[in-house]
Design a protein that fits this description.
CATH class of the largest domain: Alpha Beta
Number of helices: 9
Largest sheet: 5 strands, parallel
Number of domains: 2
Radius of gyration: 18 Å
Strand order of the largest sheet: 6-5-2-1-7
Protein backbone atom coordinates (compact mmCIF):
# COMPACT_ATOMS: atom_id res chain seq x y z
CA UNK A 1 0.00 0.00 0.00
CA UNK A 2 1.33 3.47 -0.88
CA UNK A 3 1.64 5.77 2.13
CA UNK A 4 0.65 9.40 1.58
CA UNK A 5 2.83 12.27 2.77
CA UNK A 6 0.05 13.64 4.97
CA UNK A 7 -0.39 10.29 6.70
CA UNK A 8 3.19 10.26 8.01
CA UNK A 9 3.91 12.96 10.65
CA UNK A 10 7.70 12.92 10.11
CA UNK A 11 7.48 13.40 6.37
CA UNK A 12 4.70 15.97 6.72
CA UNK A 13 6.92 17.99 9.08
CA UNK A 14 9.88 17.79 6.71
CA UNK A 15 7.77 18.87 3.78
CA UNK A 16 6.55 21.94 5.69
CA UNK A 17 10.05 22.82 6.88
CA UNK A 18 11.38 22.51 3.33
CA UNK A 19 8.64 24.80 2.01
CA UNK A 20 9.33 27.46 4.65
CA UNK A 21 13.08 27.52 4.09
CA UNK A 22 12.81 27.32 0.30
CA UNK A 23 10.55 30.38 0.34
CA UNK A 24 13.41 32.39 1.81
CA UNK A 25 16.07 31.08 -0.55
CA UNK A 26 17.56 28.48 1.77
CA UNK A 27 18.21 25.17 0.06
CA UNK A 28 16.74 22.00 1.54
CA UNK A 29 17.32 18.40 0.56
CA UNK A 30 14.45 16.38 -0.81
CA UNK A 31 11.97 15.05 1.74
CA UNK A 32 13.14 11.50 1.11
CA UNK A 33 16.80 12.42 1.50
CA UNK A 34 16.12 14.54 4.59
CA UNK A 35 14.18 11.66 6.11
CA UNK A 36 17.21 9.40 5.66
CA UNK A 37 19.51 12.02 7.18
CA UNK A 38 17.32 12.48 10.23
CA UNK A 39 17.06 8.77 10.89
CA UNK A 40 20.83 8.39 10.70
CA UNK A 41 21.24 8.05 14.45
CA UNK A 42 19.28 8.09 17.68
CA UNK A 43 20.66 11.55 18.38
CA UNK A 44 18.95 13.03 15.31
CA UNK A 45 15.54 14.63 15.65
CA UNK A 46 12.85 16.14 13.46
CA UNK A 47 13.23 19.22 15.67
CA UNK A 48 16.69 19.75 14.15
CA UNK A 49 15.34 19.92 10.59
CA UNK A 50 15.78 23.71 10.52
CA UNK A 51 19.57 23.41 10.77
CA UNK A 52 20.06 20.67 8.18
CA UNK A 53 20.13 23.03 5.15
CA UNK A 54 22.57 25.44 6.85
CA UNK A 55 25.91 24.19 5.57
CA UNK A 56 27.93 27.40 5.70
CA UNK A 57 31.45 27.45 7.06
CA UNK A 58 30.49 30.34 9.34
CA UNK A 59 27.26 29.72 11.29
CA UNK A 60 26.06 31.75 14.23
CA UNK A 61 23.05 31.74 16.56
CA UNK A 62 21.80 35.05 17.91
CA UNK A 63 19.78 34.55 21.10
CA UNK A 64 17.23 37.37 21.39
CA UNK A 65 15.64 37.94 24.79
CA UNK A 66 14.04 41.39 24.38
CA UNK A 67 11.56 42.89 21.92
CA UNK A 68 13.59 45.06 19.58
CA UNK A 69 15.60 45.04 16.36
CA UNK A 70 19.05 44.45 17.89
CA UNK A 71 19.11 40.76 16.91
CA UNK A 72 18.23 41.62 13.30
CA UNK A 73 20.88 44.36 13.29
CA UNK A 74 23.59 41.98 14.48
CA UNK A 75 22.57 39.11 12.19
CA UNK A 76 22.51 41.37 9.14
CA UNK A 77 25.86 42.90 10.10
CA UNK A 78 27.23 39.38 10.47
CA UNK A 79 26.25 38.60 6.86
CA UNK A 80 27.43 41.98 5.55
CA UNK A 81 30.85 41.89 7.19
CA UNK A 82 31.61 38.40 5.96
CA UNK A 83 30.49 39.26 2.43
CA UNK A 84 32.17 42.66 2.27
CA UNK A 85 35.35 42.20 4.27
CA UNK A 86 36.03 38.47 4.01
CA UNK A 87 34.69 37.88 0.49
CA UNK A 88 32.37 35.13 1.70
CA UNK A 89 30.26 33.67 -1.07
CA UNK A 90 26.49 33.02 -0.85
CA UNK A 91 25.80 30.01 1.33
CA UNK A 92 29.10 30.23 3.21
CA UNK A 93 27.59 32.26 6.07
CA UNK A 94 24.44 31.34 8.01
CA UNK A 95 22.66 33.40 10.67
CA UNK A 96 19.90 32.17 12.98
CA UNK A 97 17.87 34.24 15.45
CA UNK A 98 16.24 32.44 18.36
CA UNK A 99 13.47 34.41 20.10
CA UNK A 100 12.85 33.64 23.74
CA UNK A 101 11.50 35.39 26.84
CA UNK A 102 10.72 39.04 26.15
CA UNK A 103 11.68 38.65 22.49
CA UNK A 104 8.78 36.28 21.93
CA UNK A 105 6.70 39.28 20.86
CA UNK A 106 8.76 39.56 17.68
CA UNK A 107 7.19 36.40 16.31
CA UNK A 108 3.50 37.40 16.33
CA UNK A 109 1.44 39.02 13.59
CA UNK A 110 -0.41 42.33 13.82
CA UNK A 111 -3.70 40.71 14.85
CA UNK A 112 -2.09 39.14 17.91
CA UNK A 113 -0.37 42.40 18.81
CA UNK A 114 -3.72 44.18 18.76
CA UNK A 115 -5.77 41.48 20.47
CA UNK A 116 -3.32 40.79 23.30
CA UNK A 117 -1.88 44.32 23.74
CA UNK A 118 1.58 42.97 22.97
CA UNK A 119 3.07 46.43 22.51
CA UNK A 120 2.01 47.54 25.97
CA UNK A 121 3.14 44.30 27.58
CA UNK A 122 6.52 44.49 25.82
CA UNK A 123 7.02 48.26 26.32
CA UNK A 124 7.21 48.78 22.55
CA UNK A 125 6.15 52.22 21.31
CA UNK A 126 4.97 52.78 17.76
CA UNK A 127 7.11 55.68 16.46
CA UNK A 128 4.20 56.85 14.31
CA UNK A 129 1.67 57.17 17.14
CA UNK A 130 3.97 57.53 20.17
CA UNK A 131 1.65 55.04 21.87
CA UNK A 132 2.09 51.35 22.76
CA UNK A 133 2.31 49.56 19.42
CA UNK A 134 -0.87 47.87 18.21
CA UNK A 135 0.98 46.12 15.40
CA UNK A 136 4.29 44.30 15.06
CA UNK A 137 6.57 47.14 14.00
CA UNK A 138 9.45 44.67 13.56
CA UNK A 139 7.67 42.34 11.13
CA UNK A 140 8.54 44.16 7.91
CA UNK A 141 9.83 47.42 6.56
CA UNK A 142 13.37 48.65 6.23
CA UNK A 143 16.62 46.74 6.27
CA UNK A 144 16.05 45.24 9.72
CA UNK A 145 12.52 43.92 9.27
CA UNK A 146 11.99 40.24 9.99
CA UNK A 147 10.61 39.63 6.50
CA UNK A 148 13.58 41.40 4.91
CA UNK A 149 16.00 39.45 7.09
CA UNK A 150 14.36 36.17 6.12
CA UNK A 151 14.78 37.04 2.44
CA UNK A 152 18.52 37.15 3.11
CA UNK A 153 18.37 33.62 4.49
CA UNK A 154 18.29 34.48 8.20
CA UNK A 155 16.32 31.78 10.03
CA UNK A 156 14.01 32.61 12.95
CA UNK A 157 13.22 30.18 15.76
CA UNK A 158 10.71 30.53 18.60
CA UNK A 159 10.81 28.72 21.93
CA UNK A 160 7.66 26.66 22.43
CA UNK A 161 8.26 26.42 26.18
CA UNK A 162 8.27 30.22 26.38
CA UNK A 163 5.16 30.36 24.18
CA UNK A 164 3.35 28.03 26.56
CA UNK A 165 4.36 30.14 29.55
CA UNK A 166 3.23 33.33 27.83
CA UNK A 167 -0.07 31.67 26.90
CA UNK A 168 -0.72 30.65 30.50
CA UNK A 169 -0.07 34.18 31.71
CA UNK A 170 -2.34 35.77 29.11
CA UNK A 171 -5.07 33.21 29.75
CA UNK A 172 -5.02 33.96 33.48
CA UNK A 173 -5.19 37.72 32.86
CA UNK A 174 -8.06 37.45 30.39
CA UNK A 175 -10.02 34.69 32.13
CA UNK A 176 -9.66 32.41 29.12
CA UNK A 177 -8.46 28.85 28.78
CA UNK A 178 -4.78 28.17 28.28
CA UNK A 179 -5.54 25.87 25.36
CA UNK A 180 -7.50 28.53 23.48
CA UNK A 181 -4.84 31.22 23.94
CA UNK A 182 -1.97 28.88 23.09
CA UNK A 183 -3.58 27.65 19.89
CA UNK A 184 -4.47 31.22 18.89
CA UNK A 185 -0.93 32.49 19.43
CA UNK A 186 0.55 29.51 17.65
CA UNK A 187 -1.73 30.27 14.68
CA UNK A 188 -0.60 33.91 14.85
CA UNK A 189 3.09 33.26 14.22
CA UNK A 190 4.69 35.23 11.41
CA UNK A 191 5.40 33.29 8.19
CA UNK A 192 8.65 31.38 8.46
CA UNK A 193 8.79 31.48 12.27
CA UNK A 194 9.90 27.96 13.27
CA UNK A 195 8.68 26.64 16.62
CA UNK A 196 11.24 24.54 18.53
CA UNK A 197 10.49 22.62 21.76
CA UNK A 198 12.83 24.63 23.99
CA UNK A 199 15.32 27.33 23.02
CA UNK A 200 17.86 26.12 25.55
CA UNK A 201 17.89 22.73 23.80
CA UNK A 202 17.96 24.26 20.31
CA UNK A 203 20.98 26.34 21.34
CA UNK A 204 22.70 23.30 22.77
CA UNK A 205 22.10 21.17 19.69
CA UNK A 206 23.17 24.00 17.38
CA UNK A 207 26.42 24.47 19.26
CA UNK A 208 27.05 20.72 19.21
CA UNK A 209 26.62 20.94 15.42
CA UNK A 210 29.20 23.72 15.13
CA UNK A 211 27.21 26.96 15.46
CA UNK A 212 28.72 29.77 17.51
CA UNK A 213 26.53 31.67 20.00
CA UNK A 214 25.80 35.32 20.73
CA UNK A 215 23.28 36.57 23.27
CA UNK A 216 21.66 39.89 22.35
Amino acid sequence: MTESLASHPRRHFLSRAAAVLAAFGVGFPSVARADRILTGSAADSDHDAWMKPLKGRHRQMFHATAAGDVAMLMANNFLDAYAGEFAAKPGEVNAVIGVHGGALSLGFNDSAWTKYSVGKASSVTDPATKEPALKNIFAAGGRLGIAESQKRGIVFLMCNTALRLRSRGIAAERGETYEAVYEDLKASLLPGMILVPAMVVALNRAQEAGFTYVRV
